[in-house]
Amino acid sequence: MLEQLVSALVTVVLGVGGCLAYFYGSNILLDRLFPASASNDMAAVRNLKIQSSVRPWLFLGPALILLTVYLIYPVFQTIWLSFHDKAGTSFVGTANYSWAFNDSQFRQSIFNNFLWLLVVPAACTFFGLVIAVLTDRIWWGGLAKSLIFLPLAISFVGASVIWKFVYDYRGEGQEQIGILNALIVWFGGDPQVWISLPFWNNFFLMVILIWIQTGFATVILGAALRGVPEDTLEAATIDGAGPFKIFWRIMVPQIMPTIIVVWTTITVLVLKVFDIVLTMTNGQWDTQVLANLMFDWMFRGGGDFGRGAAIAIVIMLAVLPIMIWNIRQANAEQKGGH
Amino acid sequence: MWQRIRLEPSRFALHFAVLFIVALWTFPTAGLLVSSLRDKDQIAASGWWTALSTSEQSSQARTKGNADQVEKDGRFVIAGNLFEGDSAHSSLSAWGTNVNKPGANLPGATAELGSGQTLTVNADGSYEWGSATAFPDERGRRVFYVSSVPPRFTAENYETVLFSEGIGRSFVNSLTVTIPATIIPILIAAFAAYALAWMKLPGRGFIIAVIVGLLVVPLQMSLIPLLKLYNATGFLSKTYLGIWLAHTGFGLPFAIYLLRSYVAGLPKDLIESAQVDGANDFKIFRRIILPLSFPALASFAIFQFLWVWNDLLVAIVFLGSGEDQLVLTGRLNSLLGSRGGNWEILTASAFITIIVPLIVFFSLQRYFVRGLLAGSVKGG
Amino acid sequence: MKFRLALGAAALALTLTTPALADLVFKPGEDARFNWASFEELKKVDLKGETLTIFGPWRGDDEKLVLSILAYFAEATGAEVKYASSENYEQQIVIDTEAGSPPNIAILPQPGLLADLAAKGRLVPLADADASFIKDNYGAGESWVGLGTYKDKDGASKFFAFPYKADVKSLVWYSPENFADAGYEIPKTMEELVTLSDKIVADGGKPWCIGLGSGGATGWPATDWVEDLMLRTQTPETYDKWVTNEIKFDSPEVTGAIDEFGKFAKNDAWVDGGAAGVASTDFRDSPKGLFATPPKCYMHRQASFIPSFFPEGTKLGQDADFFYFPAFASKPELGTPVLGAGTLVSITKDSKAARAFIDFLKLPIAHELWMAQSGFLTPLKGVNNDAYANDTLKKMGGILTSATTFRFDGSDLMPGKIGAGAFWTGMVDYVGGKSAVDTGAAIQKAWDEIK
User: Fold this and answer.
1) Which helix (H) or strand (E) holds C341?
2) Which residue in A170, A284, A303 is closest to C218 by CB distance?
3) Domain locations in chain B?
4) At what angle do helices B343-363 and B365-376 cross, to 10 degrees?
5) In chain B, which among 189-248 make CB contacts under 8 A with chain A?
6) Per residue in C396-417, pLDDT tens?
7) C-alpha to C-alpha distance for A209 and A195, rounded to whole angstroms
8) 8 Å CB contact of A165 and B347
């Protein structure tokens, strides 16, 4: 144990030190090889030129290599794998895709993912907006926001434990220790096994992600709301607009770009959601989603990389529009100068 | 500000609404915390919201066996106390000898058990079991009783999970994964961000576009190819170095994106005047950019820390499941299975796994929020 | 700064804890039940400085048991033994082998999954001597050898997995004292079992506790039920054909057995927590209902390993006992079939220590030490049966030997994607309300897709 701590500390020092050594060393080497204070001016100018054309790559190098190895290469490799059999050896054409679209589990996952996409970003944005507006006008709003924000720091697995406890089920007539069933019984209803109620259980899983992500929406939308010019609002009040009208007609349109950012960020997160489903139901009771299905195909029963990769590509295709939109936004910003 | 605009419904309703939402959001976590501190029998017997009230429990105990019988006035008697070695109970309100009627008799009553046997149990748990003939069985008989148990809070659950459920070990493993996986990407991204913001290089726009694109690539895409790659290299699979690099790779797009937008926003004069003074880019980076970017670096550090600490997928794929590599999220996931109904273990374990992120989060919330804003509300 | 503080605190706290391997439970040389001579023999193998990594299915209390056995191997040979498991071990072992960092030894209860791994070239064949050892020294040796023989990458059949530890599945657990209190008799036939269940309901109780929850493997306990009922309604030949899919999953023979299971699990009156609770209750928690006051149920059908999950201090034979899951009196031609299972030990990364470990498993001591604790049955003939921890285990051995038909757990023999996938999820869907015919058809479809 202690050994591991020591070796961990040593490796931290080595890893970080190695990184630093690379940046220091390579830059100093560059300065030495092509000294800016060369004997004659011609050489100095040439060296400076070389320096300034090489140095950016020294700075960028490690990042580019890591990005290539860990993200870019895998994307192409996954595309390639999705056209091959389970061991990744022989070409099978589009068999994995045609399998997927005929597979009931896959269709179930698509349907569920669609539900998630429909509900979670909308709910987070809605609650985020409401909470941001409400907390902004009370003296303890900061504290309230912190508490709502708190789940954002909790892991999906931790959150799953928390919510499993909320949804806990005991047979009828027994003392319920899950708060949801306790409430139901208190109001005179029958306790339910929430996570295995087909269709509705999807929503009980979504609640977890909404619970986690609403804080994120609150903070960002709150900041945007505070940026809405005061005179616009005052003008509207003078015109006799009611609070709801002000909210929907003036505030929401003003912060629309931010709402889109929140919406798309959560959308991407939803497509990748894996831990919650794995720990709560592992896709049983019709709660399967693409990310968990992919994990299942990759590693269960000997593993099938072809089908796993095909599912990954489907997830990738789903985020593609957002990716393109993001890139266009970034490009537009660049052209506008920074 | 628009707080001044009078809004109906009234202030009271507003406070109430916020209070309600906050309660909704904090209740689940509160349940976890309270439960983790309760006695394990009580967690299973009553809801955590009743933690402060005395609960009624049915329990069972076994009398002593024939080794302890004494002959008294021609009768054989076994006497003792049901509460022996059990400090949680002090009195019982009913008792019985049939499992289906655990509360059939009142304290002090004597029950006929047939074949000349009688049993008396008192409120303090003491009992006298009499028989006309010698008791034949080595083993005593079961006695069921109903007792009220005062609320009991304990740190035992934490002791259990830390030292015998492996949570303590996993805590160290999580730290081993998280710390380097937070620091390394910061360094690499900071240099890259500076290059992309202030240095002249061909294809800069293209590189930025690629990075923005990579922001949303699902990391699931990378799992199989990286497993194969690690397999081919041999030295990276199932090692800490392997997972540090993986987390670095996955964290870089966001890190570069966040830091670049911050660094690009630094005053141009500052950098230009340094250049005029003859400082090269490396010097400028060290002397000016790095110190000025501290808030952005801190924001990213918090993000990356939370993300790595809370990650399950990357850990189960790139690290082993042995004692020396299983991280907290993985451990918690396996406890969810093997200790599925033992809420005392689950709640305490879950609380340990979330306590570090909560501390980081609360002490550095300012930076965290700033990072969120910078990362999302680009350009406003 | 904070991290370093936390690190320091954690280090302080954790240096106090014990190493992973347990101390020796039984002191070598002291207990005559054990074959210590074989332990002394083992000491000749010197593996100092070698590390042996083992991946197995046992977690929680079972993990403590396996660690106690491994401790003897480590003690005798000087090797450092590291054991790991995972809640999703069926997936984890695939990840580990694909990542190129497999453990030396992989222990799995599913021959089907091992066959998949062997076909991908992830397993190292064992020696011919190992196969002939099993054949000569295990009861019904031939069938055990068959269980560990799979086709390798090139399609050649080789012996890959060494069976170690058997389980009898056809058992119904109960509390004798609860039966006595309520005046119930142990049923001798399936018909009597049904009558008893109805009687318990009439008395206001619930006869059964059934839990299918098992993390990523949720649903497997139901497959055991179906297999047991398959053996009680169909001939062993039909069972064998079902396992190889010569008889389709949606054929009436199979759906009939599924519906027999449904009579128990889908019957709100018969199951604690109702049919809805069945799939969501963890199998490790479900037997605890037997010991509640008042009891949540009277009977629990589960394999011989389940006492590991009984409440602490439960005395087998006294607090809890079992009876044979009976056969139908109306089908005398089927005799008294028994369903069994076992774990198989295979080498995923060859080393001297790995080979030595396989040899270790041939020694009586490797079996007796676990027998003497709990939940372990072995077909190895050379062991001292007195080593069994209690009469209950001995009685289980009896069930194994008196069976007219013995069949290995069918789901474990099916391809991993079915036996450790579609069959499990199918049963969860079935308990959730799907019909047996639809369930069978869905599983059959999954099977067709992997052909």
Assistant:
1) strand C337-347
2) A284
3) 58-149, 159-376
4) 80
5) 189, 191-192, 194-197, 199-201, 205, 207-226, 228-229, 240-241, 244-246, 248
6) 877 766 677 778 889 888 887 8
7) 15
8) yes
pLDDT for the residue A162 = 92
Q: Which pair of tokens denotes residue A62?
A: 């490690």
Per the listing, tokens 């050489």 go with: A43
Between residues 76 and 135 of chain B, which touch chain A (CB distance below 8 Å)?
Answer: none
CB B149 within 8 A of CB B54: yes
- Note the CATH architecture for domain B159-376: Orthogonal Bundle (1.10)
Domain span at residue A36 reads 2-81
Residue B340: band (very low, low, confident or very high) from pLDDT cuts 50, 70, 90? low
Reading the block at residue A316, the tokens are 């990738």
Q: Specify if A204 maps to a domain.
A: yes
Query: Which region among B56-60, B316-320, C56-60, C113-117 has the lowest average model confidence (pLDDT)?
Result: B56-60
CATH match for C27-168+340-408 among 3.40.1400.10, 3.40.190.10, 3.40.30.10, 3.40.920.10:
3.40.190.10
Picking from B209, B336, B347, the nearest residue to A327 by CB comes out as B209
A/C interface, count of CB pairs below 8 Å: 95
Which of B320, B338, B359 lies nearest to residue C284, judging by beta carbons?
B338
Indicate yes or no: CB of C274 within 8 angstroms of CB of A171: yes
Residue B9: what pLDDT?
A: 53
Pick the CATH number of C171-339+412-450 from 2.40.30.110, 3.30.70.120, 3.40.190.10, 3.40.50.2300: 3.40.190.10
Residue C31 sits at the chain B interface (C-beta within 8 Å): no
**Structural domain includes residue A89:** no
Mark yes or no for CB contact B228/C284 under 8 Å: no
Residue C70 has pLDDT above 80, yes or no: yes
Same fold, C27-168+340-408 and C171-339+412-450: yes
Domain residue limits, chain C: 27-168+340-408, 171-339+412-450
Which ipTM value was assigned to this complex? 0.88
A195 near C CB under 8 A: yes
In this prediction, residue C11 carries a pLDDT of 42
Cα–Cα distances in Å, from C192 out to B220, C178, C179, C320? Answer: 53, 18, 15, 21
B85, B69 contact by CB (below 8 A): no
Report how far residue C445's alpha carbon sits from residue C441's, in angstroms, rounded to the nearest whole number. Answer: 6
**CATH number assigned to the domain comprising residue A229:** 1.10.3720.10
pTM higher than 0.80 = yes
